[in-house]
Each structure stands twice: as structure tokens, then as C-alpha cells.
Specification:
This protein is α+β, with helices and mostly antiparallel strands. The protein contains 23 helices and eleven strands.
Length: about 550
Amino acid sequence: LAPAWVSRASATQRAGRTGRVRPGRCWRLYGRERFEVGLRDHELSEIHRQPLDAVVLNLRAMIDAPTGLLLASTLEPPEAAHVNRSLGSLRDSGFLTQPRGDAKALQAAHAYDWEESNGDPYAARRAAEALEGALTPQGRFVASLGVDLRLGRLVAVGASMGCGPAATAVAAVLSLPRSPLRGANPLVHQDPDEYNALVRDGFLARWRFDGGDYSEPVALARLDAAYNEAPDKGTFCRAHCLAHGRARQCAQAASHLRRRVADTLGAHAGRPAALEELADPVMLNAVRCVLVWTMKEQLIKAKAVKAQGLNEKKAPQRNNRRTKKAPAREAGAVAPPQGCRVELSGDGARDVAARDVLGLFPEASLFRYDSGVRRTVCAPAPGICSYQDVVAGVGRVCHAFELAASWCVFPASGRGRDACVALWADREVMDAPGAAELFDSAFGRDVVDGAARRHDANPNGTTLVLLEGPAPKAKLQALRSLLDALPAAVAMASGDRQQPPSAVATFDSRDDALERALDGVFFGPRGSGAYWQSRRDFNKPALVFAPDAPPPPPPGSSSPFD
């Protein structure tokens, strides 16, 4: 569920609930301006907020008439684009065919009127097929089940693949709002022994019915089948950490769904799945294929791509600068291996957030999660600040937004100054695996180590380190790799007398805060007085893994990384 602001009517109604017993005060956790100006008068009706896929499919199954015309006659008709999105989704799922008909048929369909035709079913069907497509047998079958369309498609595809009972069992357990297994809650189970026992028993029950297949839907289907076969339901629930009420609800949902399937496809298709059937490897693979085909919006495709950074043969040795020792280079030293960048694609990758993936890996192995957001901003006019003022402003941006690094590239000028770059980096990030090598490739190892030692000797109350140097093409390429590798960074270009400044950020900021900060960098405290152009781009999200530890030295030899 996506969080959204309530309407003014809902907020007033909620305040009225507190006054049913005695007079009191209502404290709202938002400002008066938000309440009076920012909130809607009333909630949007559900027909405008929810997807209409199920509504459109059920209407087509009942009367087989153009649903767009029917929905347009409701009290609060939805937008045509909203209906068209649902029609496109139904076609992608195989519930509707593509619209068909020649120009004459389309003209007749657009002129179709339900009342003037006296509800003629043949005229309605011809108009629906010409405008929206014909209802497929699979679509009619899914509409008769009365469940979520994805689960209905799971049953339909499973029946066509010869694993109908198993697919029906899986669809039944997925239709439940909660798992039948009991969960431990520290607010309810305050006794540590009771809490630990619930955690242990729940894990053992999942492990027992999963059988090493690592599929929660199949494990829950096996659990439901074992519950149905158990002679004493209460004893079975206590032995396998089940909530008896939810287990009974799961069995009833499965029985109801099987009856619906049997009414359409016959008694054999609606029989319950046995435990032996759900343990058969051939049947299990068929069910997994069906889950993949019907739940593609939850699939994520991972692909390892070329690691961002240096070529392994040219990778310099690396010493941890936190030791504050001068780096030593020895002949025959082996460079540590590179990290790995795994790009995510597929329908499910669009909804992946950093909190969903960062907890899956040890802290030392995952450098960061790249959400793929790139925000490009461009100034309205050439900048007016000097080189020193811009460098100081870049540092203020890095500090204000708590960035890993921010830098600015200055073009060559006619006064003998070559192209150069000034970069502010967080001291801790400079030692991070994967990023340290990129800093070396951009500025040189001696420059980076020298700046790190000077900061460690005199930090001046800041965690930022300034790196400056020329900007040849090789360094610009290294900076582009650094932008992809760091958790949050801003790459700026100061421009010249004809070219205005620009910047690329790997994060989103609210209320144009980034634009205002960049305006102060290039135009001073007064700013430019104009809006910066902004564009948001999306790349593939990726997991950026840190390099592995260097290989251990041979016995009896000293390590170059000591």
C-alpha cells in the first residue's frame, strides 16, 4: 500500500470519533496550511484509485459488451486512459485478444448504444470485439473463479500444464492475507522462553514442509495438504506451530476454489492435491514454471556486468589509509581483485528498495545498492563565481547533503589554465573497498595518500578531504566510474562563457534543494534568480559488491599488504 494524505472529510470524521465519550482536543500531526489547502475535500472514489482489471473482466464475462461505454455511464466515470490500461493488462495476461474488425466494424462499434439496441447480445459482442478484443476461454474461466486475477491465471495455466490440483493448492494458500503459521511478537509474547519457542517451532515447521526446495508457496501447500489429512486437527496444529483458525480458513479457501474449478473443468481437475503429488520432482518443476509464467511482475533478473573501475592488470596495490602509514610498494605484489556489479532487470526490479536488499548480505561484502536514479540539472546562464569560490561551494554541497563525494570539472581557459577537477570526498569512503582504487585511478595514488595523511594529521573538524589535479580524458572516465560506484555523489561541470554549469546527481532531493545549493555554488549567495532545468533518468538498479580480500601469501613469505 502506498501512503497518501487523507481528505479533509476523513480527518474531520476521525476527530469526531474522539468526541463520542467526552469533550476533548484533536491534535493533528501536520500544519494548519496542510489541512486547509493541501488536503482534498473528499476521498477519491475507488473506481479512480484502484486498477480496473477485475471489474473489466467480470463485466465482459457477464454481458460481453464494451466496458468503456458501460463505465462511462457510471456516476463518477473513470478516465478513458485508466480503462485502456486495464484492457492492455488483460491482453498481456491472455484474457482478451487484440481488437479486430475492419473500418466498417469499428464505425459500427463506435456508434453502438446499449439502449438503442435493446440489449441485443450479438450487437454487444460485435462491438466489444471490435473495440476491446474478444474474451478468451482462459479469461472466462478466471472470471468464474472469483479470485485475484493472477491467482486465477495460476490455476488456469496449471490446469493446462497437467498440474491443476497442485496449482490450485498453491493459489489457495497465496490468497490468504496471513500465513497459517504462528508468528512471535515481542509485544504479545513477553516471556523470553515463549518467544524463543515460537521462533524455533515456526522455523522447524517451515524447514520440515519445505524439504530443501526453498519455495514458500509449495511449502504452505504441503502444510495445507497435511492438515487436511490429519485425523486430529488440534493436535496437528500444536505439533507444527499452526494457528488453528488460520489453518481452517486456508482449508476452506482451498475447498471453495476446488469446487469452482470442478464446476468448470470437471471433478478430476477439482480434486485435492496429495502430499505425495506435491513432493514429486516432476510436479514440483511444473508448478515452479507456472509460478514464473504467472508472477512475472515479481521476478527480478540479475546479470553480472563489467566491474566499474580499473583494469585488473593495471590495478595498483592498496594499503588501508586508516593505519596512517605511508604506503609501501614491493616487487611482485599481487593486486586485490575487482568487485562486481550485478544489474537488476525485470518487472520486479522497479519496486526494489535499498532496505529490501541491503539486509541480505554481510556488511563487508556489499558496498552499496544503486537504485539507478540519475538527476541531471542545468543552469539558466553561465556561472559568475571564481575558481576558489566554486571549489568551496562544492565542499558545502558535499557536507550539506552528506554525500560520499562531490566534484567539479573546470574546462581549460584562454589564460593558460588547463582543464582540472576539484573533488571533495568523505574520509571514510576513501578507504572503502572498490572506491579506493577508483580514487587512485583518478588522481594518482601519491596524491590521494598525501591528502589523506594531511587530513589525518589536521582534520580541522571536518570529515571531507580535498583532491585537486588536471582532468585528462582518462581521469574523466575514472570519475564517471566513481559516480556509479559511490552511494551518493554529485558530478558538476562549471562550463565556460558560452556553456552554463550542469550537474548529475545519483540521489533525489526534495523541494528543489539541490538546485538551490548548486545555484549558490556558481552564482554566489544572491543566486541567478532563475530556475534550473531538471531531468530525472532511470538506469537499471544494481548491487555493487566490494572486492574480495587479497589472496593469502604463500607460507613463509611476507605479505605486501601487512
